[in-house]
Every structure is written in structure tokens, then in C-alpha cells.
Design brief:
With about 240 residues, this protein is mainly α. It has 14 helices and no strands. It comes from Citrus sinensis.
């Protein structure tokens, strides 16, 4: 492979634009701080073994990630009661209650604001995937909760996605930075160092709020775009 991350070019500029203009970073701060702490804990508790050794080893798993996540669509459609393509706050509360995911009102509001990336006051399917993954990471869903989410592969898929993030987080501080990206790309292609503009582009595709750091939440949104979950319309518009 001559290009470090070919699938990344499909990231929609439209989605990136929405994220860059969705308002103050303050509405993300509390949740992102929890995620950063959690990722540090997971990194420290891991044995150091990873199934991912290069960017290519991540890319080759994209089809499996897609298969593991796409079955959540039926759950999304079940709780999108008015079939308008989004889940509002009341629909989300009902969904979480029936999935036996017991969260405080404040926690639900944090998740809703942090996953409603376009400020539409509704959670779209790609945002719903991120929301469920964050709940999985920050809480301890029961086995019945996971089965109700519609896919026996879901837990393994979420675990693998976390592992990808930890693979990219070289210094284990719970967030990604440009140095992490440079190191990862250059480890994958030791004979051909990644040009500075390539590394910068890859990093900017994840750093949607342009603060020089990539939270696990931002990483999730980027990954979902890269693997092609629910982006057929976006690709058609780009074409």
C-alpha cells in the first residue's frame, strides 16, 4: 500500500463543517474529561498486547466493524417513533430505559449534547452509535442490555474500537495528538516517512474542534465516517 490511510479520504467535509461550527467546547468538556480518565485507566490495566500493529491492520478490520455496528439500525428505528430519522430527548430516554441503561438526567443530557454534533436537537443514526459506545465505555451494561441493542457482535466491536484508540494513543494520556499520529504512521511505513501535510490532514480529520487534541468521542465520529456507516447519502452528494 502506497498511501497510509486510503479510506480516510472519504470523510465528509459536510460533517466536518458541522462539527467545527456546533458551538462552544464547554458542552463537551465534562463528558470528554470522563472519557479521557477512562481511557487512561483502560490503557494502564491492559497487558500491553494489541491486535493492531499498524494503520493497515486497523483498516483491514473496517468491514468487521461495519458488520458489528450496522445491526444497531433496527434499535434506532424502533425508538425513532415518528420516523423522522432522529431520536429526540424523550425518545432517547425511553430507549435507554427499555435497554435497561440506567443513567442520571445530567448524564443523559451530557450524552445528548455531546452526540448531537449538528445541533439539530435530535440524534441521527451515526450519532446514536457513538452514544451507545460511550455508554458502554462509561457504564457496565448488563448482558441483556447488550443483546437488546441488536447484535451479539456489538460488545466485541466496541472493545476492538477502544483497542484501536489505545493503539493510536502512544503516550497513554487518554487523547490523541499530532505526535501520536506521526509516530503511528511512521511505524507503519519505516522506509517512507509520512509527509508533514499528510499527517496534518489525517489529524485534522479527527480534530474537529481544532484544539490540537482528539478525544475518544471525536475519534469515534471519525471512525464511523471512515468505515462507511450510514454515509451513502454523503458520498452521493460528494460525487
Amino acid at each position: 500500500t502506497s498511501h497510509p490511510c486510503p479510506p480516510l479520504k472519504y470523510l465528509s467535509n459536510k460533517v466536518r463543517g458541522m462539527l467545527c461550527h456546533c458551538g462552544s467546547q464547554n458542552k463537551y468538556a465534562r463528558l470528554d474529561a470522563k472519557l479521557e480518565k477512562k481511557m487512561i485507566e483502560v490503557k494502564k490495566s491492559s497487558s500491553g498486547h494489541s491486535n493492531f500493529k499498524s494503520i493497515d491492520s486497523v483498516i483491514v478490520r473496517f468491514p468487521q466493524f461495519k458488520d458489528g455496528l450496522k445491526n444497531i439500525k433496527s434499535v434506532f428505528e424502533q425508538y425513532d417513533e415518528d420516523s423522522n430519522g432522529t431520536i429526540d430527548r424523550e425518545e432517547l430516554k425511553k430507549c435507554l430505559e427499555e435497554l435497561q441503561l440506567h443513567l442520571k438526567e445530567e448524564e443523559i443530557e451530557d450524552l445528548f449534547k455531546s452526540c448531537d454534533i449538528d445541533g439539530s436537537e435530535g440524534i441521527q443514526f451515526n450519532e446514536f452509535i457513538v452514544l451507545l459506545c460511550l455508554i458502554y465505555l462509561l457504564t457496565t451494561p448488563s448482558s441483556s442490555s447488550m443483546s437488546k441493542m441488536g447484535s451479539p457482535q456489538l460488545k466485541a466491536t466496541f472493545d476492538a474500537i477502544v483497542e484501536v484508540f489505545l493503539f493510536l494513543d502512544k503516550n497513554g494520556d487518554g487523547r490523541l495528538n499530532k505526535k501520536d499520529m506521526v509516530k503511528t504512521l511512521n511505524e507503519s511505513y519505516p522506509r517512507e516517512k509520512s509527509p508533514a501535510h499528510v499527517t496534518r490532514t489525517r489529524f485534522e480529520e479527527m480534530d474537529w474542534d481544532r484544539n490540537g487534541k482528539v478525544s475518544f468521542r471525536e475519534f469515534l465520529f471519525a471512525l464511523i465516517s471512515w468505515i462507511g456507516i450510514d454515509n451513502d447519502e454523503e458520498i452521493a452528494e460528494m460525487e
